[in-house]
Amino acid sequence: DDGVMGGQSETEQILEEDGALAFAGTINTNGGGFCSIRTKVNLSENTKGVKLKLLGDGKTYKFFVTDGTSGGPMAKRPSWQKDVPTKTGEWQDVSIAFSDLTPNFMGGPPKDAKNYRFESSQMKVLGLMLSLKLADGRPNPKETYGEGIFPFEVKIKSIEESTTT
Fold first, then answer.
1. Do residues 144 and 58 lie in contact, with contact meaning Cβ atoms separated by under 8 Å?
2. How many CA atoms lie within 13 A of 66 on its CB side?
3. Alpha-carbon span 60 to 69, nearest angstrom
4. Second label for 16, Cα 20 to 30 Å away, from 55, 65, 77, 110?
5. Model-level pTM greater than 0.85?
6. Which residues contact residue 14 at a Cβ distance below 8 angstroms, ignoring those fewer than 6 apart?
7. What tens digit of pLDDT does each residue of 127-157 get?
């Protein structure tokens, strides 16, 4: 969460009886404004994307994958991101092709984004993030993010590898 940069957002993860993972909390844009949940993965070179089943709250989250190296202003490798708009109170099946991911450093794509190459077998971490910025670096609008201090909740029922796009 943004506490790593002095922010005040608070989150929790709860495994529900139906097997869904609820990721919820309060975003505080005073000094911060982001949170994420992640897990380690071992993807094969044949993996072309992922399929998510999630229940949203109308906010736009970012799906991301990384090679597991640390990020921040000194990062040498990008995280790879795609916006995931959610519908309030509706289970959604979301397919994300790795070919649709954008390389990202600290809130936006680098100017030389076309020079970066995504390799699924190098990716070791995937997750969801709620952030002030969208994957392309533009601001996440208050209608799909929020403003000030506000609650959020997304439930993740499943994440599956896909060998087709």
1. yes
2. 22
3. 25
4. 65
5. yes
6. 21, 22, 24
7. 999 999 999 999 999 999 999 899 999 999 9
